[in-house]
Design brief:
about 10% strand; single chain
Length: about 325
C-alpha cells in the first residue's frame, strides 16, 4: 500500500500549467465598433466600458494546477467529515499530473445540515489549488442574472458572477461556489438556476454567453462547488450534472479534535494568545464539541474574552455562551 508521503512533495508548488484564452478579442472589438457607430451612444456607456476593460486586460488567464499530488493531510485532519470529497479532489489532481491537461474537477454538491463547514471547505479547496474563488449566495437571490448577467437594455444591468470571475479575475479555472443552491427563489418569469444547465456541462460551458456583454466566454474550466441543506428542492437535471456528497456532522471525537485545533489556531494568530494556556481543558472541549463547527469560533472568541476579563490564562466552561436551549445574549448575535 502506497503512503501519501511517497506521493507528495513536502512543499506545494503551483506552476502555471498553461495560459488559456477565455474570450475572443475580435468578437469584443466588433461589438465595441457597433456601439461607437450607434446613435444612442450615452445609453451604452456601461457596456462600452465593459468591452474596453476586456480589451485592456486581454483574453489570457492562468490555468493552474499543483505540480504534484499535494499533501492534503492537514485538510483531512481539519475537515474529517469531508474525507470522501477530499478523496475525489485528489483523484482529479492525480489525473492532471505529468500531462499538458489542465485540472478538471467534476461539479460537486455538498449536501448536509447548516454549519458543518461546507463553505469553509470550498475556501480551503481554492487555496489548495492556488486559484481564485467567487461566492454566489443563492438564499437572497431572486433573479437569474446574478449568474448570467442582465440584458444591457435594463437600467442598472451588469455582467453576472461567472463573467466577472473570468474577465476580472486572474484564472481560467477559478472555484465558483453556489451557496445554498436549494434556497434559490424560482418564479414563472425566470429560473435563477437556468444558467447552470449549460455551465455545468463541459461542452456547452466552452461558449457561455453573458446576457449583459453578449460575448462568448470559455467557462469550461471553472471548478463548481454547490452547497445545499435539502436536495429535494434542486431540479433533477441540475443534480444529474454533479457528484453529490452527503456530508455528515463530525463525530464527537472529530468535533473535539476540530475544537482543539481551532483553539490553538486562534491563540497562535493573535498576539493576545500568549496570555492563554496552549490547550483548553477537557470540559471546554466537551461543550465545544456539541456545537456546529461554524459556531465554535464565535464561542471560543467569547470564551477568550471572558477569561481575559477575569485575568485567567485558562478558558472555563462558564466562559462559553450557552447553546443548549437558551443562547447567550452576547456572543451569538448575528
Amino acid at each position: 500500500m502506497t503512503t501519501s508521503l511517497s506521493l507528495v512533495p513536502q512543499a506545494l508548488s503551483l506552476p502555471v500549467a498553461q495560459m488559456r484564452s477565455v474570450f475572443q478579442p475580435v468578437e469584443v472589438e466588433r461589438k465595441l465598433s457597433r456601439l461607437q457607430d450607434g446613435n444612442a451612444a450615452r445609453d451604452h456607456d456601461p457596456l462600452r466600458a465593459v468591452y474596453e476593460r476586456m480589451l485592456e486586460r486581454g483574453p489570457e488567464r492562468f490555468q493552474v494546477k499543483p505540480s504534484g499530488v499535494p499533501d492534503m493531510a492537514a485538510l483531512y485532519e481539519q475537515l474529517p467529515n469531508f474525507t470522501d470529497v477530499l478523496d475525489d479532489v485528489k483523484r482529479h489532481v492525480a489525473l492532471a499530473q505529468d500531462s499538458r491537461d489542465g485540472l478538471e474537477v467534476t461539479p460537486m454538491l455538498l449536501l448536509g445540515p447548516p454549519g458543518i463547514g461546507k463553505t469553509h471547505f470550498a475556501r480551503q479547496l481554492a487555496e489548495l489549488l492556488g486559484t481564485g474563488m467567487s461566492l454566489v449566495p443563492m438564499s437572497s437571490m431572486t433573479a437569474g442574472w446574478l449568474l448570467s448577467g442582465a440584458s444591457s437594455q435594463w437600467k442598472g444591468a451588469r455582467p453576472g458572477k461567472v463573467f466577472e470571475a473570468l474577465v476580472e479575475g486572474e484564472y481560467a479555472n477559478p472555484v465558483i461556489v453556489v451557496d445554498e443552491i436549494d434556497k434559490a427563489a424560482c418564479d414563472a418569469q425566470y429560473d435563477p438556476l437556468g444558467a447552470l444547465y449549460g455551465l455545468l456541462e463541459h461542452d456547452t460551458a466552452q461558449s457561455f454567453t453573458d446576457e449583459f456583454a453578449e460575448v462568448a466566454i470559455d467557462a469550461s474550466q471553472v471548478i463548481w462547488i454547490t452547497t445545499a441543506n435539502d436536495e429535494r428542492r434542486i431540479p433533477d437535471p441540475i443534480l444529474n450534472r454533479m457528484n453529490v456528497f452527503e456530508v455528515q456532522p463530525p463525530s464527537p471525537e472529530q468535533a473535539r479534535a476540530i475544537a482543539s485545533r481551532m483553539y490553538r489556531g486562534i491563540r497562535a494568530e493573535h498576539d493576545w494568545g500568549r496570555h492563554f494556556a496552549p490547550e483548553p481543558p477537557a470540559d471546554v472541549l466537551d461543550l465545544l464539541a456539541e456545537m456546529p463547527p461554524r459556531e465554535m469560533r464565535r464561542a471560543l472568541m467569547t470564551g477568550f474574552g471572558n477569561a481575559r476579563l477575569a485575568r485567567r490564562e485558562q478558558i472555563e466552561a462558564a466562559d462559553l455562551p450557552q447553546v443548549a436551549g437558551r443562547k447567550a445574549r452576547i456572543g451569538f448575535m448575528q
